Amino acid sequence: MNNLDSSLQAHNKLEKEANNLALLKDRVDKYHDLSTQMSSILTIFEKRLGNLEQTILPVYQETEQLQKRQQNLEATLNCLESVLSHYDVSQEVCQLIHQGPVEGNITVFLDALAKLRDANDYFRHNNSQSVELENVTSLFNTGCEGLSQHYSMLLKKHSAPLKPVELLDLIYIEDDSSDEYTSFRQLSQTTREELYTISHWLEQNLREYTNIYATERGEVVLRSLQLLKDHQKSNSWGHEALRPRHSGRQPEPKKTTSARLQQIFEKKANKLYLRATQTIEQSTGFSIKKASSHSDHLTSEDLMDGDQELDKYLVMLLGLQRLLNWERAIMIDIIPQSKHNDVFATLAYNAIDLVVKDAEAITQRILRCISRKEWTSALGIFSALKRVILLQPDIDRTYDPAQREQLKKVLKKLQHTGAKALEHFLDVVKGESSTNIVGQSNVPKDATVHELTSNTIWFIEHLYDHFDVIGSILAQDVLYSTQLDTILMKKALPVEERNKALLAIYIKKALAELNLSIMNKCEQYNDQATKHLFRLNNIHYILKSLQRSNLIDLVTLAEPECEHSYMEMIRELKASYQKTWSKMLVGIYSLDELPKPVAGKVKDKDRSVLKERFSNFNKDFEEACKIQRGISIPDVILREGIKRDNVEHILPIYNRFYEIYSGVHFSKNPDKYVKYRQHEINAMLSKLFDDSA
């Protein structure tokens, strides 16, 4: 039973698979028929496409050839038209070229020149023997020459030197930013644009224009400076009021030239100081506080030292710098970048040369003043030198290397003149010690402070205000630098202190020569007391002046024992002066050598001795008082101190002599010999150094 069921299932399954196989064969036959039909269709399509290509391709090729012919024809026509235009261009633009360019409509003229240039290029490359080449070249050159003339005309027409008042306003403006220059620009925006267009066309066509621009604008700068120089010679110089730069603004009150310069350079000094402190703070993290007045770049003493000619020159130097800044701003709008340096160098040369020559003239004049011992001019040089140094950042920013080298001549001239002034001053002080002519007195009759002493102290006191500048000058001298090295071996000094040390070395030399001169001059007095008092007056004045001005601290850098040396010198001179009374006191000092009175009487042979002692004392004392009443001791403390020393030295000796012998009967006329009581001696000593007593 089970076998039967299994056979039945297998039969059914076989029958089913046979049906599926028959169905698959049927479908394969259908797919084969479809493939055959599709292949037949594609074969027919390929034949038809091949027939179409054989028909269309010749048409396409013929059309392409026609298009090329058309393009060639159009190119030929254009080329022919261009060639014909080159032949016609001379007649077309001839009148325009000869008329020249018109201001405000330069494009038309440049277009005409462009046509001539193209024609020139065509004939030069294609028909160099053509007459037209000569015509076009000649006309093109004429046009370029006319364009250059128009360029020059525009610059002349719209350029004029600044009036002195305008230039002074430009110098004294508080802010030197570009906005401040706007009101002074004479070239309008339209003119500058036209000049810019011409400059670039000439540059592209290799035509010269830079000399034209540099010459015309350089003349503006030079004439502006010359007008300022003429104005400086007028009576109104130095008292102008600034014009308001904006409407509704009142003019600034009048200031002297020195005051305005002071304000300008104080601002520059403050900028330099701020820049330096910011650099130090950023690099070290330390905050820097501003130093005292002596460390400022400029002080009020600069105004006192101001020489009018030097002030005028500094204004010229500032004017040059402002004018060239102004010119650089204009040049940027007109001249191609590649030509800036060359144009600016040519433009500025004559103006810089004028300023350098002025510096030479001024320094020569100041050297003549110094030779006449006009030391204020020397101080003016140091003040001017300090200000020129403050201008160096502006000079570095404004000028190119060659111009900076040219302007360095100004700095070198001032430095050379300053060095000559210092050297000549020492020579004068030194020369005073060897110019005492026999029989001719050049010392004060009253033995007061000599003019050389007061002048020397005045000069070195004012040198301290310029220690930084003077230090830089002295550092170039081997003698001073060697002595500075010796000081630095003992003590390290910052840069600022080194300049002070160099000045201290110079002052030490000046004081040494002054001391020698005073010592030599005192020999012109015949009286020993006067000699000592003359030296005492001068040495005391030197010490007190150094102490009062704090210069003693400065000199200590070079001579640590300076103050002690002067004090010891004063002590010795006082002692030497007191010894001059010895001749007068020697006869009454030693009582052991005098006769001893008995009951108010002495022997007859001893009376002449007492007469002689009293007479000699009276004579010497009266002569000394007569001389010393005419002597002046200006310092009250010194004068009263010497009077006190005289009383303490003389009066006790005289009192002792007087008390013993004034009552002795050694003469029938005692009043002839005993002329002075103790209080009278005291009174006469108190009237010394007073010619009116």
UniProtKB/TrEMBL annotation:
Q: Where is the Exocyst complex subunit Exo70 C-terminal domain?
A: 315-686
Q: Which residues cross the membrane?
A: none
Region of interest: Disordered = 236-258
- Keyword Transport: yes or no? yes
A molecular-function term among this protein's GO annotations: beta-catenin binding
Q: Does the keyword Amino-acid biosynthesis apply?
A: no
What the entry lists under InterPro entries is as follows:
Cullin_repeat-like_dom_sf, Exo70, Exo70_C
Taxonomic superkingdom = Eukaryota
Keywords assigned: Exocytosis, Protein transport, Transport
**Function per UniProt:** Component of the exocyst complex involved in the docking of exocytic vesicles with fusion sites on the plasma membrane.
Family stated for the protein in its record: Belongs to the EXO70 family.
Q: Which named protein is this? A: Exocyst complex component 7
Native species: Drosophila yakuba (Fruit fly)
